[in-house]
Design a protein that fits this description.
The structure is a single chain. With 468 residues, the chain is α+β, with helices and mostly antiparallel strands. Helix content is 29%, strand content 20%. A hairpin with a 2-residue loop joins strand 3 and strand 4. Helix 10 packs parallel to helix 11 and helix 11 runs parallel beside helix 13. The termini are far apart. 42% of the residues are buried.
């Protein structure tokens, strides 16, 4: 633990809608640890947990772009959540328990860009993803290992018991005993963190370190167990092999295919332009952004869109939240507004982004392949295709998440920090992108074959839709 480390705030340039990209220069005004403690006096000298809690809560209140919108859309009062967790953190013994509770508080904002950074694994999960549908818990996804072990198991199977407890009884118990139960959309938010929540509040204090589920199958109830692990559910939905680098080719029947695994990488602008040049003769296009978690939307996502539009169109707008709090702790960067004058408005004026077509006007069928693992700049890209009527979405989608994130490092404890969004992005209609739902035009539910990598049903559905 270092006590002489100044507080710095790092601008993260990898996420979305920076409408005008300029050279980024940073002028830091760091506080010493002693100055920090003078601004964040704790209940007891050196109480890092209390100071970090206050720092995180204050940063979100004063700098988080969606602070008001999230309270309205999710049906909660931030002051109530802050009071609940301020008391809860006084009852835990370890830093790991404290950090889990703090991360849980932040997660209730339902923003994938906004979370605690701690340098340790904060959550425990397992090889399954659960969902709640029509009064029962079901398997949304599971690992290929489980699929191989249980040939009769299908996605969507009902979960009957969890460690011997009826699944819905456990769901209701967790919902009623945590802040999720006080929120308008608390059931959905709980399911997004169901296994980590269950592990923290109950499972870690009992059992043998394994999670045991009983599920319904066509052959009757089946039981299986798995170890608790960190980040085990990150890539459960599919093992279909996908190109891990930008690639393009002509498929049968003159269908052009472009694979974009991420909106980042040296030379990608030239590769995008070359791909569209090589596929000029395609009668239809498929753009595959499955598993793409984002990158530089302003330069790369918009570059692809400029090859798709046939006239000059409004893409959307962005607004940064001004925060004297952030500037006080050192934030002076090219893509973040300058320190506001006293009495300045809370947000910058909207900055519009327009798309100018790069190619000669040509209309041809376009399909975008997606999964629930798409995020950030990719969500903005998918939303733009949908809003501008450029093509159809094929696959699976979660609600969109967008917002320029920055990261704040806590000076009194190595590795502790906070990442959060400071920008609101809106589409051409003016609707806020964050939290918005875009339903696939051609939905493709997850199957055993996709989990096992035996077939690619999303690409198959796209090719079927384009068949002549």
């Amino acid at each position: 633990m270092r006590k002489d480390r100044p507080l710095t705030i790092l601008l993260t340039l990898i996420i979305p809608l920076i409408w005008a990209v300029a050279a980024c220069s940073t002028t830091s005004h760091p506080l010493t640890v002693e100055e920090f403690w003078s601004r964040y006096p704790a209940a007891a000298p050196g109480d890092e947990r209390q100071a970090f809690f206050n720092f995180v809560a204050d940063s979100l209140e004063q700098g988080y772009a969606y602070h008001a919108e999230k309270q309205a859309s999710l049906g909660f009062r931030w002051s109530d959540l802050r009071a609940h967790y301020a008391e809860a953190i006084t009852k835990v013994e370890t830093d790991a328990e404290f950090l889990f509770l703090l991360d849980e508080m932040v997660s209730l904002l339902d923003d994938s860009h906004t979370h605690i950074t701690a340098g340790i694994e904060l959550k425990r999960t397992a090889e399954v993803i659960l969902t709640e549908e029509q009064g029962s818990l079901r398997l949304a996804a599971f690992s290929s290992r489980i699929a191989e072990a249980l040939p009769a198991l299908e996605p969507g199977a009902e979960v009957l018991t969890i460690d011997g407890t009826p699944a819905m009884d456990l769901y209701q118990r967790l919902l009623n005993s945590t802040p999720y139960g006080q929120m308008q959309d608390g059931g959905r938010l709980l399911m997004a963190r169901f296994l980590p929540t269950y592990y923290f509040y109950e499972a870690r204090r009992q059992g043998d370190g394994r999670l045991t589920l009983q599920v319904a199958t066509p052959a009757g109830p089946a039981e299986f167990s798995m170890p608790w692990a960190g980040n085990a559910a990150k890539r459960l939905a599919s093992t279909v092999p996908l190109d891990d680098s930008f690639a393009w080719r002509m498929l049968d029947d003159q269908i052009g295919y472009i694979r974009i695994p991420r909106f980042s990488g040296d030379g990608l602008v030239d590769q995008i332009d070359q791909a569209f040049a090589d596929l000029t003769g395609a009668r239809a296009l498929i753009i595959d952004v499955r598993e793409n978690t984002g990158g530089d939307f302003a330069t790369l996502g918009s570059r692809v869109l400029r090859h798709l539009v046939t006239e000059r169109v409004l893409l959307g707008s962005s607004q940064f939240r001004y925060s004297d709090h952030l500037h006080l702790f050192g934030q002076e960067a090219g893509n973040y507004p300058g320190r506001p004058e006293e009495g300045a408005p809370a947000f910058s004026d909207p900055t519009e982004m327009w798309l100018e077509p790069l190619d000669s006007p040509r209309e041809r069928p376009l399909l975008i392949l997606t999964t629930e693992r798409c995020a950030s700049s990719t969500d903005l890209f998918i939303g733009a295709v949908h809003d501008l009527g450029l093509g159809r979405i094929v696959g699976r989608m979660d609600p969109l998440h967008s917002g320029q994130p920055i990261q704040i490092a806590f000076p009194a404890h190595e590795g502790w920090g906070l990442r959060f969004s400071v920008m609101i992005a809106r589409g051409a209609s003016g609707e806020m992108a964050e939290g918005r739902s875009v339903e696939p035009d051609i939905p493709v539910p997850l199957s055993r074959a996709e989990i096992l990598g035996q077939e690619d049903p999303i690409l198959k559905a796209a090719l079927s839709a384009l068949a002549r």
